[in-house]
Amino acid sequence: MNDEIAPIEREHGTAIPEAGMFGRIIDRGGVIFAIGILVAMLILIQEVILRYVFNAPTNWAHETTIFLSGIAFVYGGLYCAARDRHIRVVLIYDALPYRFRRVLDVAISIVCAIASTFFAWAAWLMVERAAFTPAGEFRLERSGSAWDPVYPGLMKVFLLLVMAALAIQFVILAYNYAKGQK
């Protein structure tokens, strides 16, 4: 195979080989969040019927659908990284020979790993305030609404976990791009 042309041989609908086993696990986990979006839709349909047909709205539907949608969007970034389906400007990238694209893939993955680590650190700072009392006891931040779920605290903890996983995923990608592993 000519190294300058090296076609992209990627199976659609799965994590890229460079993402490794970690990426395959992330890819499989995406179905959970897709189901969460469907559950959010069903909750909204139920809420519309309860509110406008029976005049009996719930006090939990709005916050629950926001939470389910929010965690799906947060997970979506990790999911896209494992599948290499994120948005990028390819004007220069596609014009480069395969070797240079591989060097760029390594460099971009390293920069993204560093950025993800900084975002994970920032998320940890949020989690410190959202999950622990000043005395150090574990207590998740609540919404403050009439229902008062712990969704804000859970979202911040989830964001921390996803950003840490994203940093790990980018390290794996950088390593496998550097090795030239397919």
From TrEMBL:
Molecular function in Gene Ontology: transmembrane transporter activity
Record domain Tripartite ATP-independent periplasmic transporters DctQ component: where: 41-171
Keywords: Cell inner membrane, Cell membrane, Membrane, Transmembrane, Transmembrane helix, Transport
Localization, UniProt: Cell inner membrane
InterPro entries: DctQ (IPR055348), TRAP_DctQ (IPR007387)
A GO-annotated cellular component: plasma membrane
Transmembrane segments: 31-54, 60-82, 103-124, 157-178
Membrane topology term: Multi-pass membrane protein
Chief site of localization: membrane
Function: Part of the tripartite ATP-independent periplasmic (TRAP) transport system.
Family listed: Belongs to the TRAP transporter small permease family.
PANTHER family tied to this protein: 2,3-DIKETO-L-GULONATE TRAP TRANSPORTER SMALL PERMEASE PROTEIN YIAM
Subunit structure: The complex comprises the extracytoplasmic solute receptor protein and the two transmembrane proteins.
Protein name (record): TRAP transporter small permease protein
Species the sequence originates in: Poseidonocella pacifica
Highest classification ranks of the organism: Bacteria, Pseudomonadati, Pseudomonadota, Alphaproteobacteria, Rhodobacterales
